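User: Could you go from structure to sequence for me? I need the amino acid at each position, not a summary. Structure tokens:
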């Protein structure tokens, strides 16, 4: 198999100085203290010729650093990197542009930096101008361009210099829809010609529709590399988990900061116990069929007087991402608040179209003042049994079509 990029044990370390001028100081006094920051750690990957590779990863994961090393804009701290053929890269929208020069002059400047002859660029000039499609702005200094115009010009140059490897970093995010489509079409042509493409995008939809392989980078390390479907799926699961974690932390922080929301120890004010799930026959279980009613109950005792006691519930997925939360303000959720009696709340969630999987149920009891009592939750998740395939995601959505 022919490879266009071979990367072995690639590491990039940035030196972080306490103060910006320490960087300069270090040129003269080598002993200036700095911290090492690993933007890339021991990346090894061989990229075959003719693949369209999506590069996935959160902000700061190291994607741009990797692309900069491949294009030679930055140098590795250790490891080796071999590329075959002419590389054209659109890394940052401003990269390579001289703001004082016009669009046309910048086209020639780029040709120069890519080692192209002027006469070869002369032939491409009209194609680039047509592709960029920014009208008379092409004769104006680039400093007067909007970010969309810069992206147009940058992309137009990158794809019209006949590269063997095309590298595109998020450039499409600033263009309008028509321009995005045009870029994708041009990239499809490249793919058909058997050229190698590296494509960084936060749009998983675009990556899925365009790339046949993907790599996923996290904290400077290569987590996985393989077919797009598989890697995007794993990455989506990871993002979902991250979101759930973040949300949990934010909720806790909000609770800690918000003085209006008083959290009272439930033992002092309210006690809940005996949480149970039951099915439509009244039998205790936490396993349900698709579309079956989910019943649950718990006991509570009110120990201090409170006005307008209400209940609510939340269903979360296996990673604690919220799927549904009932309305906390609803008058329909008022419950009995007589003191010192044991009350039982029985709830029924009807006709649930949740797809097979595990889910968490929890809920709170609120009073009129906004004080809430984290009162009940199932220790074990409830489960919807596997049944005929109904699709992916959380819910079955009824659909129809005409042909
Ligand atoms: N010149 C530099 N000096 C110090 N640290 C840097 C430098 N360039 C990048 N970094 C750090 O290296 C890490 C990786 O940055 P990089 O730009 O490669 O991330 P990315 O995955 O492309 O992120 P994004 O999706 O936000 O563009 C970040 O933590 C960043 O702050």
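Assistant: Here is the amino acid at each position, in order:
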């Amino acid at each position: 198999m022919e490879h266009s990029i071979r990367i072995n044990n690639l590491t990039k370390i940035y030196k972080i100085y306490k103060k910006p001028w320490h960087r300069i100081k270090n040129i003269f006094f080598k002993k200036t203290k700095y911290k090492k920051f690993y933007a890339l750690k021991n990346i090894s990957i061989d990229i075959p010729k003719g693949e369209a590779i999506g590069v996935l990863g959160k902000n700061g994961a190291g994607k741009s650093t990797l692309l900069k090393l491949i294009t030679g804009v930055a140098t590795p701290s250790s490891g080796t990197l071999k590329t075959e053929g002419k590389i054209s890269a659109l890394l940052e929208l401003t990269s390579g542009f001289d703001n004082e020069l016009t669009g046309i002059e910048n086209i020639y400047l780029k040709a120069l930096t890519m080692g192209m002859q002027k006469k070869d660029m002369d032939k491409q000039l009209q194609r680039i101008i047509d592709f960029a499609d920014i009208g008379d702005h092409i004769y104006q200094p680039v400093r007067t361009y909007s970010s969309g115009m810069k992206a147009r010009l940058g992309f137009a140059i990158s794809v019209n210099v006949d590269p063997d490897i095309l590298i595109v970093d998020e450039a499409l995010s600033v263009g309008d829809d028509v321009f995005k489509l045009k870029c994708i079409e041009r990239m499809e042509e490249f793919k058909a010609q058997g050229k190698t493409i590296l494509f960084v995008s936060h749009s998983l939809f675009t990556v899925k529709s365009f790339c046949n392989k993907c790599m996923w980078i996290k904290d400077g390390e290569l987590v996985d590399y393989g077919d797009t479907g598989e890697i995007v799926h794993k990455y989506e699961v990871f993002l979902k988990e991250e979101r759930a974690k973040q949300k949990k932390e934010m909720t806790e922080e909000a609770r800690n900061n918000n003085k209006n929301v008083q959290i009272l120890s439930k033992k002092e004010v309210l006690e809940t116990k005996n949480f149970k799930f039951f099915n439509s026959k009244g039998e205790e279980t936490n396993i349900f069929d698709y579309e079956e009613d989910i019943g649950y109950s718990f006991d509570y005792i009110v120990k201090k007087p409170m006005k307008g006691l209400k209940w609510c519930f939340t269903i979360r997925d296996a990673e604690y991402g919220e799927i549904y939360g009932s309305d906390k303000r609803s008058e329909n959720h008022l419950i009995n608040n007589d003191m010192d009696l044991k009350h039982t709340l029985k709830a029924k969630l009807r006709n649930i179209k949740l797809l097979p999987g595990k889910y968490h149920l929890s809920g709170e009891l609120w009073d009129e003042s906004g004080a809430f009592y984290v009162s009940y939750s199932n220790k074990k998740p409830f489960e919807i049994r596997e049944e005929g395939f109904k699709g992916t995601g959380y819910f079955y959505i009824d659909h129809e079509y005409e042909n």
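One structural detail worth keeping in mind: The CA atoms of residues 281 and 304 lie 36 Å apart.
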